[in-house]
Amino acid sequence: MAESMPDSRSGDPGSKASIWRRVPAGAPEQTLAKIIIVTGTPGVGKTIIGKLLARKTGSTFLSLGDIVRRNRLHKGFDRRSGSYIINGRAVEKKLQKYFEDHREKGMVFETHFVSSIIHKTPGVVAVVLRLDPVVLARRLGARNWPKRKIWENVEAEIIDLSLYDAFKVLGKARVYEIDATGKRPGNIVREVLNVLSRKEGWSSKSNWLEKYDPILLSKRIL
Ligand SMILES: Nc1ncnc2c1ncn2[C@@H]1O[C@H](COP(=O)(O)OP(=O)(O)O)[C@@H](O)[C@H]1O
Ligand SMILES: [Mg+2]
Fold first, then answer.
1. Which residues make beta-bridge pairs with 125?
2. Residue of 128, 135, 139 to test ligand 1 pocket, by largest number of atoms within 8 Å of CB
3. Rounded-to-integer distance, Cα 90 and Cα 196, Å
4. What is the CATH number of the domain that holds 199?
5. From the CB of 133, is ligand 1 less than 6 Å away?
């Protein structure tokens, strides 16, 4: 099973060169994971940051939506959530293929969820973007989303849903949390490159429950 595949970071000799790549000038170290998953609640900035990160690292940017549309991996449309229902098994298989094909060039993959489509694979790390729930609510409001849908996503952000989703699949050593609140995209990408090159794994960056009372927040939003 993929879960028990050898990990080059713990010394699997043959595959090391294909898993790490050179970091652009200015970054503190010279190697970086080849496959970087950018995840987080809708609206946190995954597309903007993911594309910029791909440009900076000379890798290919792809989103879950791109893969689903390009390969017709959906099973219909869910009117309630206003989104396509994806075929998880088919997406997982296709993604593995994309990851394999991009082992040399590298790939930044944007997805708002990790479990059921990604499994623990050598050379795969996840960056979880976090955003202050009030800023997030404002951004989603600007997309004209219904209040209920805004609240569902704010709630997910408050309870660290994306972070735990990534932990569950990849473990804390391959997950990097970045608080994007009040930062320019260029600075966020610099921070991402920095933490990835240090390879120290997760350290806590946000605690929205310390900052906000969910009941009061829901009254502001709903
Ligand atoms: N660091 C940032 N500062 C200001 N606005 C941002 C930042 N990151 C994203 N945005 C804006 O927030 C909105 C959502 O960004 P997007 O990248 O589409 O998020 P996601 O892909 O996570 O849904 C966009 O309008 C984008 O321009
Ligand atoms: Mg996006």
1. 36
2. 139
3. 29
4. 3.40.50.300
5. no
